[in-house]
Write a structure and sequence with these properties.
2 domains; 82% helix; single chain; mainly alpha; 5 helices
Length: 171
């Protein structure tokens, strides 16, 4: 949470600094809302959840009105055209924040699905590697138990040796 706060404050601060800098070189202020919408997009990308992006959207609307709209350093939502501009800016900012959060959640779900597939494939491969020696051990021990009287001593030693070898491989 502390990280998200500093990310949000830092990006909004950078957006404000860029707008103040551009104010020296550009006669219009039409770029200001766009810069702040981009700041909200970045905030939504670098923070978790909706709160930071939506909060930044609201702060951005007031910052644009207060610092970059005539009369400067006063809140005034009654100027012709500005209420619509600010409503659209807030709507776009909140929409961008919401979409960015959803995309990040979908990516996280996709990563979890891939991780689970990899885990399942690994377990399946290990299971196969373990089944082969176990099948050999079961087969050899069954022959020893069921046909012990019919086997020569060398055959018994060979079957026991195979059982031991497969068990050592498993161990």
């Amino acid at each position: 949470m502390k990280k998200s706060f500093f990310v949000t404050a830092g990006i909004l601060g950078i957006a404000a600094a860029v707008c103040f800098l551009l104010q020296q070189f550009v006669s219009t202020d039409t770029h200001v809302p766009l810069i702040f919408v981009m700041a909200v997009l970045c905030i939504s990308g670098f923070t978790e959840g909706y709160l930071w992006g939506v909060g930044a959207s609201i702060v951005a609307v007031f910052a644009v009105n207060y610092a970059f709209t005539y009369p400067y350093f006063r809140l005034n939502f009654t100027l012709t055209g500005y209420p619509l501009t600010f409503i659209v800016m807030l709507t776009v900012s909140i929409s961008v924040s919401t979409l960015t959060t959803r995309i990040k959640k979908q990516e996280q779900i996709r990563i979890e699905i891939e991780r689970e597939k990899t885990r399942s494939n690994l377990l399946r491969a290990l299971s196969h590697d373990i089944r082969t020696p176990l099948t050999s051990i079961i087969g050899d021990s069954s022959v020893l138990l069921e046909q012990n009287a019919d086997l020569r001593e060398e055959e018994k030693i060979m079957l026991l040796s195979d059982i031991r070898q497969e068990a050592e491989w498993l161990n």
